[in-house]
Design goal:
The protein has helices spanning 14-20, 59-76, 110-113, 120-134, 147-153, 158-171, 204-210, and strands at residues 2-6, 23-28, 31-37, 42-45, 77-90, 93-96, 136-137, 155-156, 176-181, 184-190, 195-198, 221-223, 228-233. By secondary structure, the chain is α+β, with helices and mostly antiparallel strands. The strands form three sheets. Strands 1, 4, 5, 6, 9, 10, 11, 12 and 13 form a nine-stranded mixed β-sheet that branches.
């Protein structure tokens, strides 16, 4: 099993942090492949590459990156997945990302989880509405944090809010996983008939880029509550 270790070194350029939504990258030639979330750089990924950041950033350059990245991912990886151990740096040290998922900490959403909605689709919608009302999305990168810390802060970047959302969905009995690709993290939840893409970032400029064909398809990583998967190289 491959071990993925992601640290939290921040980029100094604010525009880079905002646009990349907190990303990790693997540099391959002149094309960047998103490997994680949090505006961070991976310390160890298979061949132990050290990854530079993108400077400066704007919407056009990020959109270009996404198009090139999707093409490169599909060239280098199949649509099948294999297990990996995804390790992240937290304020308390390195830990498997699954240790941050904590359904018991989502008391903030207890009224939704225990509410009258019994249909999984309606529960998902209710939980998403509470997430939008009670949390502020921040594009600046943070260290990977436990759910309880993000709840106390009332804000978080894409990865930390995704961990909160996954914890709430798990507590509600709804299957879900975190998806990492293209310098971003989002959540997919199963509503009983299909997997739904749950996007926490409501910024209109960035959402236009998220709508680029293939952005959400076959993410490089899938983070479940009990395991992590990565696309298999061709």
């Amino acid at each position: 099993m491959t071990t993925i270790i992601a640290n939290q070194n921040r980029y100094g350029d604010l525009h880079c942090r905002i646009a990349l939504i907190g990303s990790l990258f693997i540099l391959i030639g002149s094309v960047l492949i998103g490997a994680g979330a949090g505006c961070s750089r991976p310390t160890v990924i298979r061949d132990k590459e050290t990854i530079p950041g993108l400077h400066p950033w704007n919407a056009d350059s990020y959109a270009t990156y996404v198009v090139q990245n999707i093409e490169e991912l599909n060239r280098r990886y199949s649509g099948q997945y294999e297990p990996v151990e995804f390790v992240v740096d937290t304020a308390g040290g390195s830990a498997r990302v699954q240790t941050l998922i904590d359904p018991s900490a989502t008391e903030l959403l207890a009224e939704v989880i225990a509410g009258p909605a019994t249909d999984s689709g309606r529960k998902i919608e209710a939980i998403m509405e509470v997430m939008r009302q009670r949390f502020v999305y921040i594009p600046e990168p943070e260290v990977w944090a436990p759910v309880s810390e993000t709840i106390r802060a009332g804000k978080g970047d894409c990865k930390n809010l995704s961990i909160v959302l996954m914890s709430a969905l798990t507590s509600a009995g709804i299957p879900s996983y975190g998806a990492i690709s293209n310098g971003h993290m989002w959540v997919c939840a199963f509503d009983g008939s299909k997997w739904r893409i749950l996007e926490i970032d409501d910024d209109l400029q960035r959402k236009r880029i998220y709508r680029i064909a293939g952005f959400y398809e076959d993410p490089l990583y899938k983070i479940f509550a009990d395991r992590s998967l990565k696309r298999i190289p061709r």
